[in-house]
Amino acid sequence: xxxxxxxxxxxxxxxxxxxxxxxxxxxxxxxxxxxxxxxxxxxxxxxxxxxxxxxxxxxxxxxxxxxxxxxxxxxxxxxxxxxxxxxxxxxxxxxxxxxxxxxxxxxxxxxxxxxxxxxxxxxxxxxxxxxxxxxxxxxxxxxxxxxxxxxxxxxxxxxxxxxxxxxxxxxxxxxxxxxxxxxxxxxxxxxxxxxxxxxxxxxxxxxxxxxxxxxxxxxxxxxxxxxxxxxxxxxxxxxxxxxxxxxxxxxxxxxxxxxxxxxxxxxxxxxxxxxxxxxxxxxxxxxxxxxxxxxxxxxxxxxxxxxxxxxxxxxxxxxxxxxxxxxxxxxxxxxxxxxxxxxxxxxxxxxxxxxx
Length: 356
Prior knowledge:
By secondary structure, the chain is of the alpha/beta class.
């Protein structure tokens, strides 16, 4: 049976790399845990790092974090749906927001729960996901400051999460300037400029991050060591904190191309045949995972002489050439994963998760 393994030591080393980097630059940060899909053992590993601040986009996951460590500051990292406002105030110390009606509801609920709910107001900086339009910013903040049980913790933005718009000095300087304008206009102090995510880390490493950016929300770099500018790995970090182990359930020498009349496969595609491969054979290994668990495009080969052919709903087909590695039924073949692939695996009840 396939399983996912988290390597505790590599996770800790990645954490200390980031924590040291942010401390040297006087930056606060929290770990975004949405990749873990509320898996209790993995959340405990993250909590044990000592971060003290964790972010998630599912209220059930934040509830688990609070059960594991009630003192951890939790942040709900998308504009809250109206039907979970009560739970957001109960389990999230803070939330990211863009809608006045939602903020009114949060304030009313916080009053009922005898709390003050912290918010970071997200600003649209070009990637066209969530964010208040910049021209409306002053009017927006004026109304938010009038809410009795809302504390404005910061101003923030998301880049690269929707259309791939990359952060740069100009955009982040603008974000910092908006914070200063709002503070002067309303005689308020806004502690955080949350302009940092994994995609922003290379700017910090190259000393190109404006000094006003003082808060990061990081997930992908912690678990994958990812440099989103180069699509490589940040020097000094691990890209294999998580690895997927898949079991061989059949291996045999077979033709390289199918025979018979071709129709559409379950994904609605028609196979593209290389006629030069007619008559050729290779060893094909069938593994115990499929599209139900992960899109094959999100798998990264670790073993040599392994080529992903394709998958069906619950089986993955590999071409292992002449099988010089000597794979047999019952053997395990490892893969690393891209972020979206790991997200699918974490969300699958069919894949066991373990820690080493």
